[in-house]
Design a protein that fits this description.
Blueprint: E1 5-9, H1 15-24, E2 28-32, H2 35-40, E3 43-46, H3 51-60, H4 64-72, E4 77-80, H5 82-87, E5 88-92, E6 104-109, E7 119-124, E8 138-143, E9 147-151, E10 156-160, E11 170-175, E12 178-181, H6 192-223
Parallel strand pairs: 1-2, 1-3, 3-4, 4-12, 5-6
Antiparallel strand pairs: 6-9, 7-8, 10-11, 11-12
The chain binds glutamine.
Function: Catalyzes the hydrolysis of glutamine to glutamate and ammonia as part of the biosynthesis of pyridoxal 5'-phosphate. The resulting ammonia molecule is channeled to the active site of PdxS.
EC number: 4.3.3.6, 3.5.1.2
Organism: Occultella aeris
Length: 224
């Protein structure tokens, strides 16, 4: 099976790192800045960077509505850090008037870990991201990261902080085909999170193909 075509939203942020991690995970990757590019992809990554800047550029490039429409239509999307903020339905401590694309039924607190710990690294357990018992833990890099403060009933918690003052805070989630991490797995050579997203996109492709085949079979039966 050919690798899925995954777009990286390329308005701002660490586009190159995500592109590399996705390619290393078997995907074909294209930058997405226009509606036509968004329309062509089977999955999308919203990178880490600065969510307020991306919010502004999404407006300038007129991508908000098409992106919301594709998400409503079932497009798999993975957001890291600023990308997690943009996927959240609700933000706390957002800059004045800051909007989000939404889709993930979570409340995210922006810059949640506080100024003293602008950036830090932690080992996480995350069985659904390939870091379960017997696997090496996921080494997570947080840079002025958000955390997830509340999750809706359909949201699966994939990882929480193990220790320290932020112990128990939710830092990775999934809801259907939407995935988000507060940390940056695109930095470094451990591609388990990107592989999990590529698998999600492929599973989605198989579901769509079998739904299309069922529809075709029903049409043939009706004709016959
Ligand atoms: N590394 C990041 O993506 C930081 C996110 C940034 N603090 C924001 O609000 O967008």
């Amino acid at each position: 099976m050919s690798g899925p075509l995954i777009g990286v939203l390329a308005l701002q942020g660490d586009v190159r790192e995500h592109t590399h991690a996705l390619r290393a995970s078997g995907a074909e990757v294209v930058p997405v800045r226009r509606r036509s590019e968004l329309a062509a992809v089977e999955g999308l990554v919203i990178p880490g960077g600065e969510s307020t800047t991306m919010d502004r550029l999404l407006k300038v490039f007129e991508l908000y509505e098409p992106l919301r429409a594709r998400i409503a239509d079932g497009l798999p999307v993975y957001g890291s850090c600023a990308g997690m903020i943009l996927l959240a339905d609700r933000i706390l401590d957002g800059a004045g008037g800051q909007g989000t694309v939404g889709g993930l039924d979570v409340t995210v607190r922006r810059n949640a870990f506080g100024r003293q710990v602008d950036s830090f690294e932690e080992d996480l357990d995350a069985p659904l991201l390939g870091a379960g018992e017997g696997d090496p833990p996921l080494h997570a890099i947080f840079i002025r990261a958000p955390w997830v403060e509340e999750v809706g009933p359909d949201v699966e918690i994939l990882a929480t902080v193990r220790s320290g003052p932020a112990a128990g805070r939710i830092v990775a989630v999934r809801q259907g085909v939407l995935m988000a991490t507060a940390f940056h797995p695109e930095i470094g050579s451990d591609h388990r999170v990107h592989r999990a997203f590529v698998d999600l996109v492929l599973a989605h492709r198989r579901r769509e193909e079998s739904a299309a085949a069922d529809l075709e079979a029903a049409r043939v039966t009706r004709r016959g």
